[in-house]
Write a structure and sequence with these properties.
With about 450 residues, the chain is an alpha/beta fold. The protein contains 14 helices and 16 strands. The chain has 2 domains: about 170 residues, Aspartate Aminotransferase, domain 1 (Alpha-Beta Complex), CATH 3.90.1150; about 260 residues, Aspartate Aminotransferase, domain 2 (3-Layer(aba) Sandwich). Strand 1 and strand 2 form a beta hairpin. Helix 3 packs antiparallel against helix 10, helix 4 packs parallel to helix 10 and helix 7 runs parallel beside helix 8. About 50% of the residues are buried.
């Protein structure tokens, strides 16, 4: 008899069009149930999810308060078109602005993070009358046709036939910035950017905006030097350029602050949010200053499900949970604990080139003779799954393991996951075959 998981895979494989990520791995995990920080597959096997479903389950899976909010809303109204106001929509706006940087006082909704980034860039263009966009290597704004032109990886664009539509500068990676020579990577990038924006013969048109992740997520949990974001803010102010911060993955408590930009005390002109703010439902938004957010006339941007009542109710509950249960503070404490453990226990591993993180957002860069080793990263990810631990994988070369667990995770549960990671990666120092041999 075919196992339940394989049965589901066979049914989907038979009818799903190619192009989705479903079968990026030959035998993807078949999800059947979630709770807290755990996932159960269709065969009943439980897994500890240290990636929170691609950094979405910040308040945990099926949090009782979020679930109850969805149930209550479902009994009253599920769909509400974006052309019609609703009380739950007003409540969502108020909660979003209560946790946003003080200078941001208006909201435009989106369904996905990619849609939020599309909206922010188009709004910046409309508000400034400029078209150019500046962004950075490793940027991940989403994979829709409207967002992928600003992605750092050309491999994301080529299958869609979409050309790049931005000027790209290096992102100041404290671990891998050979291009900076002996200089400080952040200072080097800021000097390059200043020359591009100020020199009238630079060949770079005045930009509408600079689009940047305060901490790159898909890029491999890359944390820039302390002066980078403040330097961008100063250049934007000097040149009439809007600063758009993508906090979709690194925000909402993930980095140990409500927003990752708070580590550098930098306020954006526009900010995109998503993933965790929906409590597990599809919700994103652009937050911004009134003079920018009132640029468009009504009916300029719309989509049928923009103001979906269920998503709004879930978002309200998720924001309440994050604030009232002190999950940002938990991210600080547990993140420091996890980072200290991993730095100590992996210090002697030749397979781990760098351990970095902020809050419960940690990246482990796997290398072979100090060069990126994506094969080892993939094998390590599979070995951990066989031990019941799920981790993410990213980085420019696909060689970074990413930890972004639910912020509700208990310390002893987190430690169990860290035990497995340390054991597998300590073995990885003996080579790929040592990882493959782990039972």
């Amino acid at each position: 008899m075919t196992a339940p998981s394989e049965n589901v895979r066979e049914r989907i494989r038979a009818v799903e069009g190619t192009g989705m990520r479903t079968f990026w791995q030959p035998e993807p995990l078949v999800w059947a149930r979630t709770e807290g920080c755990h996932v159960w597959d269709a065969d009943g096997t439980r897994y500890l999810d240290l990636y929170a479903g691609f950094a979405v389950a910040n308040v945990g899976y099926c949090h009782p308060r979020v679930t109850e909010a969805i149930r209550a809303q479902a009994g009253v109204m599920t769909h509400c078109p974006s052309a019609a106001p609703s009380a739950v929509r007003a409540e969502l706006y108020e909660r979003l602005l209560a946790i946003s940087p003080p200078s941001l006082d208006r909201v435009l909704l989106a369904v996905t993070g990619a849609m939020a980034n599309e909206t922010a860039v188009q709004l910046a263009r409309a508000a400034t009358g400029r078209r150019n966009v500046v962004t950075f290597s490793g940027t991940y704004p989403g994979r829709t046709v409207g967002a992928v032109p600003y992605a750092g990886k050309h491999a994301y664009r080529e299958p869609l036939g979409v050309a790049a539509d931005a000027h790209f500068l290096p992102y100041p990676d404290q671990y891998r910035s050979a291009w900076a020579g002996d200089g400080d990577p952040a200072e080097t990038v800021l000097r390059l950017l200043e020359d591009a924006l100020v020199d009238p013969a630079s060949g770079v048109e005045p930009p509408a905006c600079i689009l940047v992740e305060p901490i790159q997520g898909n890029g491999g949990v890359v944390i820039p030097q302390a002066g980078f974001l403040p330097g961008l803010r100063r250049l934007c102010d000097r040149t009439g350029t809007l600063l758009v911060l993508d906090e979709i993955q690194c925000g909402f408590g993930r980095s140990g602050r409500m927003w990752a930009s708070e580590h550098d005390d930098v306020a954006p002109d526009l900010m995109t949010v998503g993933k965790g703010i929906g409590g597990g439902l599809a919700l994103a938004a652009v937050l911004g200053r009134s003079e920018l957010m009132t640029t468009w006339e009504p009916d300029t941007v719309t989509s049928t499900f923009l103001a979906n009542a269920l998503n709004a109710a879930a978002g309200c509950a998720a924001i309440d949970v994050l604030r009232e249960e002190g999950l940002v503070e938990r991210s600080v404490r547990l993140g420091a604990h996890a980072l200290a453990r991993l730095e100590h226990e992996l210090a002697g591993s030749t397979a781990v080139g760098d351990v970095r993180g902020r809050g419960l957002f940690v990246g482990l860069e796997l290398v072979k003779e100090n060069e990126p080793d994506p094969e080892l990263a993939g094998q390590t990810q599979r070995a951990l799954r066989e031990r019941g631990v799920l981790v993410g994988r990213g980085g420019r070369y696909g060689n970074v393991l990413i930890l972004a667990p639910p912020l509700v995770i208990e310390e002893d549960v987190l430690d169990g996951g860290l035990d497995a990671i340390a054991e597998v990666l300590q073995r990885a120092g003996d080579g790929l075959e040592a990882v493959r041999a782990i039972p």
